[in-house]
Design a protein that fits this description.
Strand order of the largest sheet: 2-1-3-4-5
CATH superfamily of the largest domain: Hypothetical protein af1432
Structural class: alpha/beta
Largest sheet: 5 strands, parallel
Number of helices: 16
CATH architecture of the largest domain: Orthogonal Bundle
Number of domains: 2
Strand content: 5-15%
Helix content: 55-70%
Distance between the termini: 69 Å
Mean pLDDT: 92
Number of strands: 5
Order of helices and strands: EHEHEHEHEHHHHHHHHHHHH
Radius of gyration: 23 Å
């Protein structure tokens, strides 16, 4: 039988969660604080540790770090009533398997324990579980990102939480999103054609790659060219981003931009093969900004281009990949910057 250490400084919560875990067929150990938890683990390591984030003295984030250092095969689940994205990201950096938002029910707890049990088996050497486990972990983090964003009280907090989760998964996720958003807004301003829609455009640009949360990091960070099957997976990220964001009313006016930012002006893009003005104007602007930033910053598969060469490449693809008017505006934006 698998063993679970439950750590919570609220006796009533500790008793309730322990009884649920016992009923699910696990051996349960309890600790009322961080020090007691570390002593218990040093004496007899549990397969799974379920830790509350907010505790007196040392908190659960520190405990998760200690457990990962001392007991690398123990699967860690965090539980909290906090809806703070920064705390979630801090714990997930310690290879936390799941993150339970209180109040949760027995079904949600059972899901987390199942994931943790398989993580422990994989960490102990069961290679057959590894790939399926990585897929499950990504999906859980995507669901967590949406849940945390939905719980925020402001657009800014929701945006920051989603981008923080993306940064955890993809190198330069935040930097790329920020630069693309700035250039998208500058292009829209130069075109003078999206008055009253700047906020939605900026949100769409910031979140255009959020679907990559559910793309394997082995594909995102691969140093060699992607093969056909890997490209097929990569090309799903606009749809994955759309599916995530449409659950969040805060961003309902930006979801179409996220879905369409890899459509091409001549109809050769994806996911829907839209052509010309079938593509939302904001998405056509975003496509140019995204391509420029991708070309001018280091990538795992190639060095960056000089800005002038990137502008030239976008102008070369004007009318095929990019809207000609927007491709022309890119050169004007940088000409104005140089003159200033």
């Amino acid at each position: 039988m698998h063993s679970v250490l439950v750590v919570d400084d609220d006796p009533s919560v500790l008793c309730t969660i322990s009884s649920w875990i016992d009923a699910l067929g696990y051996v349960v150990h309890e600790a009322g604080d961080v020090e007691e938890a570390l002593e218990s683990m040093d004496e007899a390591p549990s397969d799974i540790a379920l830790c509350d984030v907010s505790m007196a003295n040392r908190d659960g984030v520190w405990l998760a770090w200690q457990l990962r250092e001392r007991h690398p095969h123990t699967a860690i689940i965090m539980a909290t009533a906090l809806r703070d994205s920064e705390t979630a990201v801090s714990t997930l950096r310690n290879d936390v398997v799941d993150y339970l938002l209180k109040p949760f029910d027995r079904g949600r707890l059972a899901e987390a324990l199942s994931l943790a049990r398989d993580w422990h088996a994989s960490a102990a050497g069961d290679e057959a579980l590894h790939q399926a486990l990585q897929d499950r972990l990504r999906k859980r983090r995507t669901e967590l990102a949406a849940a945390l964003a939905e719980a925020q009280t402001t657009h800014v907090a929701a945006l920051d939480g989603l981008i923080s989760m993306l940064q955890l998964h993809e190198r330069d996720g935040r930097g790329h999103a920020t630069r693309v958003a700035r250039l998208t807004v500058a292009l829209a301003d130069a075109l003078g054609r999206v008055n009253g829609e700047m906020l939605e455009l900026e949100h769409g640009a910031l979140l255009h790659d959020i679907g990559k949360l559910d793309v394997p990091s082995t594909i995102l960070n691969k140093s060699a060219p992607l093969d056909h099957s890997e490209w097929e997976v990569m090309r799903t990220h606009p749809q994955l981003g759309y599916d995530l964001l449409r659950r969040l009313p805060t961003f309902e006016r930006s979801v179409d931009l996220v879905l369409a930012h890899h459509e091409a002006f001549d109809g050769s893009g994806y996911p829907r093969g839209l052509k010309g003005e079938e593509i939302p104007l904001g998405a056509r602007i975003l496509a140019v900004a995204d391509a420029y930033d991708s070309m001018t910053h280091p990538h795992t598969q190639r060095p960056p281009l000089r800005p002038a060469l990137a502008v030239g490449e976008i102008e070369r693809c004007s009318g095929s990949q990019f809207d000609p008017q927007i491709a022309e505006a890119l050169g004007e934006v940088f000409a104005d910057t140089t003159e200033a």
